[in-house]
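@channel sequence for tomorrow's demo:
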Amino acid sequence: MSLPTDRDARVELGVELLAGADEDALDVAEAVDRVETVTTDPRLVREVLDAAARRGVVEREDGVLRVRRRGGTVRFESDVVERPVDADCRRCGTTLSTGYFVRLPTGDLGPFGSTCVRRVVGRD
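structure tokens (generated this afternoon):
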């Protein structure tokens, strides 16, 4: 998937990614690491975090985001799909021949390598 260029669509995708977090809490650095798979623009990262807080997806408390799981957790077995690709990992930049994509309501996010996709969905 190529990421949407529309600012609102990117914010929505970032909020959905946080809503699907497997953990009960993320420190701000972990949350930013995940959101940066959608955008590396610091202002847009901030917009995603603010939108998630406004919508009740997360609650901020002393540098920690408590996840309220509005979207349900991303289930690795059913919400992550594997496809052959000739691309770079969206998180670390490694060249991939097999990519993993996270299925979100707005669309698929990826590709990621096997280690990075686990980190993005909170399995490592």
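heads up for whoever presents: The first helix runs from residue 7 to 19.
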